[in-house]
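Worked Example 4.2. Read the sequence first, then its structure tokens.
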Amino acid sequence: MQLIKMAYQVLRPFWASPQGRKPALLLVIVLAMIFAIVRIQVELNDWNNDFFNALSKTFDSAMKSDAQSSSALTESAKNSLWHLVMIFPVILVSYVFISVNKSWLIKLITIRWREWLTEYYVSRWLSDKRFYFSQLDGSEFTTDNPDQRIAEDVNMFIQKTLSLTLGFIQSFSTLITFMVILWKTAGPLQFTLYGREFVLHGYMVYAVLLIVIVGTLLAHRIGQPIRRLNIERQRQEANFRSHLIHNKVCAEQISMAHAESFQKEKLKYDFFNIRQNWLQLMSRQRKLDYWQNIYSQSLSVLPYFLLLPQYISGQLNIGGLMKARQAFMLVSRNLSWFIYRYDDLAELAAVIDRLHQFHIMTEPSAVPSPVISGADTVDMKNAVIFAPDGKVLLDQVNLSVNSGEWVQIRGESGVGKTTLLRTLSGSWPYASGEIKAPAGVFYVARTLDTETCSFREMICFNHTPDVAESELIHVIEQAGLSHYLPLLDDIDNWNNRLSSGEKQRVNIARILLQRPQWLFLDEATSHLDEDEALFFLQKIKQLLPFTGALLVSHQKNTWHVADKTLYL
């Protein structure tokens, strides 16, 4: 029941939205196609009965001694056979046409649903800074690898949900239809016991129900641990991939520290966990496969044994035997839907569990913001800033900064200067008191992290892409990066190519290009020499006279650029 509630929470957003209406209509069409396929299967079942009866009559007439009557009967049987042969391609083409287009429509629904749900979860993940806060409050450990949940779990959830739901509807429709056919075709079982005659109506239906119930219970008992093992498998695989990505991002640090052996051991340990989980999953899966194969192969011959008394007594001809056997197989196969799809159901349950965790973690109400954003000034009165565990980091902070003012924030290392800037920028939610901060703050940290892109894209980060070429070239030259102008459109991993000082010059170019109203500079020039750092800060202050700034720096020479100082 809990799993159904979780699935509902993940399913509801798309299908309750306006964008879900057209896919819902397509889903109705798919359902109509499913019912049409069931109807065609009934026609094929009837065709099977007629074909074998006609074949039997042709064979019987050929064995009769009366040549004249034999010739007439044979001719009639031949005509019936040829008629059935001509009908079969029509049934086959109809079946193929509907089946193929049903699959195509399901794929169309899948991509539309995935597109919407991916955008939905990306928006939730990036809204209210949840992508960052989860690292602070520890929820990333209970909801690990959000990249996998958005990229893989969403896709798997949609495909498995559609496949299993529509498959169940088709199986259930086929089951009901052919259960009626099986009841009628097989007829009653008549037998004598202790001198009394008994008649058991619909015995084939009762037999298949009993067989499938026992088979389903055994499959569930054998395969129950698969869900837990699948959840663990997804987690271990994601951790391994995450550490591989970490090695790529931190390649320079690992190389300089000669930490390759340590990283190798860490990855080896990650893969050891994957291997152990895989072996457990293999073992459990093998047990389930044994049962599924025994069950499947037994069902293929069992109807012959069950129908043999009817055939021997003459209640069933060869056509009726084949029709009843096919109906039995369809009933048993669709009644055994749970057995054959147990793996998929276990995997879907694991995906729903993971996606629901992510859904809860990204609830908009989950992260209250202590900062009133959109003010014209920076204003803090009796502000208290905490650590995630509740420990007080800064107590009774009072600060007022007007537009155009530069304030130097000083204090011992570790006192909380960076945390103060994070709080004012809305990136640290653990605070109380009266805190007002301006919107559109440009925060510059000590380091620069950028994805693989062109040099142009790196400079224009978070800025309108239609910037004038002359303006772009001008700010690059002002930041002392003119030697990179010939590489403006070269795509590269600039994290590895640029020096620490050049990365800080990139931030200076971004500031000059974007001309923000407010700057939060957190050791933004620490990798430049002090005279060079002072030169660039004075240039920014001169070119952006109405920009307010909060400056954290251990370079004493740069303190002169500030209008006043706040001591923590």
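Now turn to a second chain, presented in exactly the same format:
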Amino acid sequence: MKKLLATFLALTMLLSTAACSNGGEPSSSAGGNEESSQSVETRDINGLTLPISAEKQEISVLMVYDSQIVEDPNEIAGVKAMEEATNVHVNWMTYTETEMLEKFQQLLATGEYFDVMFPGGTSTYPGGYEQGIEDGVLVDMAENIEKYMPNYLALLKSSEDAMKQATYDDGKMHSVRVIKGNDEGVDGGGAFMGPAYRADILAEMGADVPETVEDLHQLLIQCRDNGMTAPMTLESDGGTSLSWAWGVNTDWASKYWQYDYSTDTVLLAPFAPGWDDWLDTMRDWYAEGLIDKNFTAGSAAISGDYSNFENDQTLFLSFWFNFLMGKELYTQGYVSNDDLDLQPLGGIVLNKGDDPVKCSGNACIQQEIYVTTQAKDKIDIISKWLDYQYTQEGINYRYYGIENESYVVDETGNITFTDAILKNPDGISVSDALGKYAMRTYMGFQSETAEISVQVATSSDGAIMQIKAGEVWASPEETISIPVGVQLNQEENEYVNSNMTDIITLMQERMVKYILGTDTTSHDEFRETLKSHNIDEITQCYQDACDRFNAR
């Protein structure tokens, strides 16, 4: 991160003059202590002057937080240090992620707002941030970002992807966004899901890791002939990461949309050139006994049925999760099979020499941070407080706690936890011990380096496998994913939502029934059925959104 901040310094020097001009003075509208300001010692972090105000200021923040160790975030050592550095006291309102799903919408409905609202990734403002501005609920942060947030701007300007993803179609940055990265800079990080195989079974077979579709086909035949009943899995809708080898996206989470970067064209999977061959191959493999007969029940992580892992019945998993890689199914008690070893595949290709394909993008920009109009009289204070979340100092307080108490930094800049965390004298876990020092929230700069450090400290083997799997799945350079940051406007969103449900149902029924052999209609007939359900018009909505994104 020190390297990162050094790089940003050149960018922030241009912004620092405006930021410093009023950064150390109290806000006349910020509802704090009304006593006359006194001379205070100030310091600068890349254009952000600390303390933010000479007089104590107060703001309110809604956020997802759940701790059995420290109920009030203001009792966390790192949060106390952040208040001392900024001279801003935060009145927190916190809910668990599950509670927030209901509470956030209730708060919006009743008009009970907080200055800053960060409900996590599962709760969003209806219609998006721009709709919130139009409704008079959310603040347009475009001018405030330019005026008060030099560290945030420097991070964005260090990455073309980040800048493009954080900008709206009109060329402005209406909201502050979570930025994802590591100690090398802004980066979307590894993938969460991807194909996996049982390395222990493959080693017992004396076989190499498959590189092509035919390599895998022959391995699956060998597995079947050796008595395995489910050599390969599919998702409950018939989708599989193997379809990427044909340049086809069958991931239900992305609703089967994909993008051709050579022509800048959006298309639904059945209109991709490789769709027919992929689906025919899955039907043939199912008929050959190579695919789990019960695939419609869903993956084990969804159905809870781990018998194929327990009994060594499956070699290739079409989609799997990075947090369950390696021996995690055994160590977490899902199976008693201690030989189990799940390893990631970087993408099987159709023909030897082809470039592997993925269906994910470099998502540098994450959730929006909602600043409400309740905060308009202290927007300078709030903007600067948010900017502090993107500084190295703020990151360290949020993730690591207090230097020389919960962590130490060596001469190369590497951070390690102290015995107060790793060998807590009270005998509490690493996670609980760290909870007294660090809030560990990703509102601001989401540091993959810091998150990994915590994961490795709490469960080294599993954390290392998560990192490895994410890197392997993200390694192919070619992707068929729609560009990260593409946004439908309100009219497009309403049209898509009113028509897409039928399309999804048709897709899922087609894949399952065709693979099972019960649907014998041609691929062309299915495409005509999709067209009768307005797929051309829905596709145009996505195409227009992509065109606007590409024009940013």
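Notes for the reader: The longest helix spans residues 490-516. Residues 10 and 416 are 29 Å apart (CA to CA).
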